[in-house]
Epoxide hydrolase family protein (Actinomadura gamaensis), 389 residues
Amino acid sequence: MSNEIRPFRIDIPQADIDDLHDRLARTRWGRTLPGDGWDRGVPVGFMKELAEYWRTEFDWPAQEARFNEFPQFVTEIDGYDVHFLHVRPDTAPSSDAATMPDAATMPDAPGVSRGLPVLLAHGWPNSFVEFAELIRPLTERGFDVVVPSVPGVGFSEAPRETGWDAARVAGMWIELMRRLGYDRYGVEGGDFGAYVAPEMAKAAPGDVAGVYIISGLGFPTEKDVPHMLPEEKAQYDLMQQWMGAAVLDHHHVNRVAPQTFAYGWDDSPTAALAWMTHKFNDFATGAFDAVDRDLFLANASLYWFTQSFGPAAWPYYSRGKDAGSGWPEGQKAVPSGTYSGPPGIRRLAERANEIVHWGEGNPGTHHFVAMEEPDAVAADMRTFFDLVR
């Protein structure tokens, strides 16, 4: 295994962009089914307008240039090439045009910032794009920021065999931080990252200062109902509504038949966009009022150009067809904090976590709140990590 860290720059060929536009223009639109609004899925009118915007107005080269302002690298870990962003206060991008990282921005360069390093673990169906707006506020608060791409997502190599789990990814990220020269750091995670971040703490408690979860600790289950206080039962009922039959169960789709659906996701950008649109809306009704449309489409574009829709499903199918969805439980090896408490219940979270910061009243409505309220997330992260550093 090579420990070499290689500079990386995103460079999607114009032919691939043209192909995307051509496929969008040739979409064979289905009929509108009876029902109101989102009752049968993404409304045809909404989908046509969004796809046309993606084809004619969304500017991928501008987004690519923006992402290339972040110092990016690739390194081989556990036999796989891993793509990651490594941004320090002294290497954070300015508003100037994108530039290729030079020797001064390499991870082993002298003059490394003394700010607490923090690794941001992205979720599904997301990528490093989830944190595009969060990185600058974090570096302005003194953090070094590392954002690795999960294997199979974006420019990280996809798994070649089964048997992967959050613990394996956690081990890769621990090695990445070691390779970057960090012996103490914080970890943030939401969605799939809420499984990875606690695993990092359990595997390397001497290195991880604290685990910060966007949401996902102390989620109540049916067995907790008999012992719930009225306000806790209200949180449980809210979760049942969110996880009810009206929500498209991506756990089941990704666990049972991702290969079947990947043919459509990889061949039709409209099918891929509809899938991602539906899930972002499931994660927060009115998602496209909360999350910037171009940021959402940048993530969808990254998945399309790198054919990540199928490979990104592995955290689900690797658990087996008979596995339940399961909530992240956390860990007690190091202190934990959250951006958003409800619908999690602190009393339940404290069964498996040492909670030192329980966010309540923070702004935001979306599951991927870092895309919606990056300044608030950065400020709250600073509050938590100041407690544990």
